[in-house]
């Protein structure tokens, strides 16, 4: 279980122009849960993920993963960055990119190779292992980044707007892929997006953030049946209702001033 | 015009283009040679100071034929190789260290900015004082001059590593030494390669300079001897030889760079 307690992040503290990106943020993610974070651009979503991932020290508050405080990158966590093209290494082939974080797993050569091939196949890139990331399309690169995180076999996966720069069809495919992989591997997922449809479609709960300095505006339960389906789920009146509800929640300006946890 | 015709025309244009690309340098060289042949012969300049190109090349060919040029070339290249090698051995670790530690970067910045513009030639007296007029002095001068480009390029290359690339490795718990080896260094390699290429030219210049000024054995010394004995054509021939060596080394460096950086946008094949 992941617990974020009263997280606060001020950039440039002690300088003449400190910037309070995250004011006070508390959220919990249960095991195997899919939680989405939505909020306007600049709301501090990436900041939140970096603090949760132990990459960025918070100003105050704390993050706990299974009751252990996160002070550095936890071993059972993987992060898919918003900027996948910069997060893949152009000097490594796709296979090597995926193998790079696996050293700690001590699997042995053959097992590693098999794991990589399996994961690549599961994202539909079984043939791309020997290529370089820059020889692939944007959507394919994004899938490589996802495959790398999956091969790492994390218990919890953080994803920062992973589908922001792919076309609608690829996006729908990738969404279903992530849901499928989550079921298959039993991963907990914390998913950042600014696409409300996507958040509702994927999640068990949607956390709506206010603009910076960020607080939680509202947490919306999504009781839609699983497995979900791009057509059937999205044509349910319940889906439309939830979507509209989240939409209004983001647009409501009074949340900027008041906190509701 | 039909599409096929257009495409054909474009194809012709490209092949003409690539032919021009290939022949243009040859035409340039030929023009220069002809100019250097005609100008002295026409009496525009005194042929005693600028012999015709054919005479220069003939004397160079003579040296190649009787083998007397190889040993000075070897001596000059020895100075180049040791100078460049030592410079790399010093500048790479220092550059990585300075580039990785912000405080060290700030602390060393002004020292480096002060030392770097010191012309190595100004250190010749110091070199003689420290090492005498032998090979050590030549290597000292070449090393001193060749260290700066590599050092600076390494420092800035290491500092310029994409934070996202670094955070990715950190988030997966990759250890610091492995991050250095697999992320920082490859990402800084384009910078480092440029530094080494510049330093290679610099090391050659300083090796020849030391030979000219200090009388170390090598091409520089031979050039001086040719001048003193009035063998002007040979002097020019030897100067051309140093030029050719510099050119050859540059090609070598470029090839190495292409090899190591095949993944880099500047070297990727088939993207144009
Ligand atoms: N290193 C930094 N130094 C100073 N301010 C920063 C830094 N990183 C982010 N910020 C600021 O913090 C705020 C939140 O940034 P963050 O990247 O977390 O937003 P985001 O919600 O991820 O936005 P987007 O949806 O556009 O990705 C922004 O106003 C940004 O300008
Ligand atoms: Mg972001």
From TrEMBL, chain A:
<dbReference type="InterPro" id="IPR003593">
    <property type="entry name" value="AAA+_ATPase"/>
</dbReference>
<dbReference type="GO" id="GO:0005524">
    <property type="term" value="F:ATP binding"/>
</dbReference>
<dbReference type="GO" id="GO:0016887">
    <property type="term" value="F:ATP hydrolysis activity"/>
</dbReference>
<protein>
    <submittedName>
        <fullName>ABC transporter ATP-binding protein</fullName>
    </submittedName>
</protein>
<dbReference type="InterPro" id="IPR027417">
    <property type="entry name" value="P-loop_NTPase"/>
</dbReference>
<dbReference type="InterPro" id="IPR003439">
    <property type="entry name" value="ABC_transporter-like_ATP-bd"/>
</dbReference>
<dbReference type="InterPro" id="IPR050166">
    <property type="entry name" value="ABC_transporter_ATP-bind"/>
</dbReference>
<keyword id="KW-0547">Nucleotide-binding</keyword>
<keyword id="KW-0067">ATP-binding</keyword>
<dbReference type="Pfam" id="PF00005">
    <property type="entry name" value="ABC_tran"/>
</dbReference>
<feature type="domain" description="ABC transporter">
    <location>
        <begin position="2"/>
        <end position="236"/>
    </location>
</feature>
<dbReference type="InterPro" id="IPR017871">
    <property type="entry name" value="ABC_transporter-like_CS"/>
</dbReference>
<keyword id="KW-0813">Transport</keyword>
